[in-house]
């Protein structure tokens, strides 16, 4: 649904409130699951892949309505940019985002479950939705993201911040992860919340999630990927993902479409790489007042769970730092 922009202060306040509310709710129901941390591929999730360093650049416009694609940062053209790894055919190719429309056909239609667990979708139970699934299904596009392009692996320091800056389309879009067939849900991005919305992603990650569209039509999703190279250079790229939802929607309409800049927020300030050696608790001191307020409201047990949520991204970064240090030692 088309939305007007909000001020940066309101963005920050709403993101903070949403994060705290989500942490409290999740902690009350499932404190153990909060140990998962930032989104990254697990060894047993079937997402292991190694990308060909000689993979060529594709040309021409293509519509993909089935098979596997990922978007992510690349350096193979000599510059930091966002591209699509097109794994739908042989040979596999890298493609520019403006040349690719992801068609979410009617084979993807499902209904919103009648469960409080899916209330975050903001949709009536039983409503039809079009889903790009987290787990691959026949005849439906399977779109994810990765930080595995070989020159990125060689040059990226710890990881990247992936930000969703805005969405233009006829309905709502929510992206979420779910552990297992009946596991717990973890919302990542949603048009129901203020933009920008960001996620930390470690280097050498391959992830798929559920993309839920509430209405058919053309959706333009503005994304930005920021990182720091091992050389210390800060890099950033922004581009538009194009989705054509529903069989009755003409995917050709998405080519050349540009998102309304009034709907696009600036990315949040970069905090992916704090200066100096870091610990998992680094930078948490400023949260003490908030934590004591929560103590009075929900008790010590929930505060512990909330702290786990707050530092989970820092833990992911610490893992990445350790891996980078090990690589340097081996050299």
From TrEMBL:
The chain crosses the membrane at residues 289-311. Keywords: Membrane, Signal, Transmembrane, Transmembrane helix. InterPro entries: Surface-anchored_actinobac, TAT_signal. Residues 1-41 form the signal peptide. It comes from the Bacteria. This is Choice-of-anchor M domain-containing protein. It comes from Leucobacter chromiisoli. The lineage of its organism: Bacteria, Bacillati, Actinomycetota, Actinomycetes, Micrococcales.
């Amino acid at each position: 649904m088309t939305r007007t922009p909000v001020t940066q202060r309101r963005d920050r306040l709403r993101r903070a409130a949403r994060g705290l509310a989500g942490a409290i709710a999740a902690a009350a129901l499932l404190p153990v699951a909060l140990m998962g941390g930032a989104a990254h591929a697990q060894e047993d999730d079937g997402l292991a892949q190694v990308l060909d360093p000689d993979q060529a650049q594709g040309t021409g416009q293509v519509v993909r309505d089935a098979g596997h694609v990922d978007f992510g940062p690349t350096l193979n053209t000599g510059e930091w940019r966002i591209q699509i790894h097109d794994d739908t055919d042989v040979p596999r190719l890298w493609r520019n985002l403006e040349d690719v429309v992801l068609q979410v056909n009617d084979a993807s239609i499902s209904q919103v479950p009648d469960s409080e667990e899916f209330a975050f979708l903001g949709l009536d139970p039983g409503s039809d939705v079009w889903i790009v699934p987290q787990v691959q299904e026949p005849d439906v596009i399977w779109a994810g993201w990765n930080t595995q392009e070989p020159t990125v692996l060689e040059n990226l320091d710890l990881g990247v911040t992936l930000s969703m800056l805005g969405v233009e389309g006829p309905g709502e879009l929510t992206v979420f992860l779910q552990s297992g067939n009946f596991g717990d849900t973890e919302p990542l991005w949603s048009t129901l919340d203020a933009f920008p919305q960001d996620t930390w992603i470690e280097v050498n990650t391959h992830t798929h999630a559920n993309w839920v569209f509430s209405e058919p039509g053309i959706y333009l999703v503005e994304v930005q990927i920021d990182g720091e190279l091992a050389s210390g250079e800060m890099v950033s790229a922004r581009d538009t993902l194009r989705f054509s939802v529903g069989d009755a929607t003409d995917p050709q309409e998405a080519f050349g479409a540009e998102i309304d800049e009034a709907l696009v927020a600036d990315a949040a300030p970069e905090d992916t790489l704090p200066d100096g050696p870091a610990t998992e608790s680094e930078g948490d001191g400023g949260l003490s007042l908030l934590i004591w307020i929560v103590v009075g409201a929900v008790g010590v047990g929930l505060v512990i769970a909330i702290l786990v949520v707050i530092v989970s991204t820092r833990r992911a970064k610490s893992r990445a730092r350790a891996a980078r240090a090990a690589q340097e030692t081996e050299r």
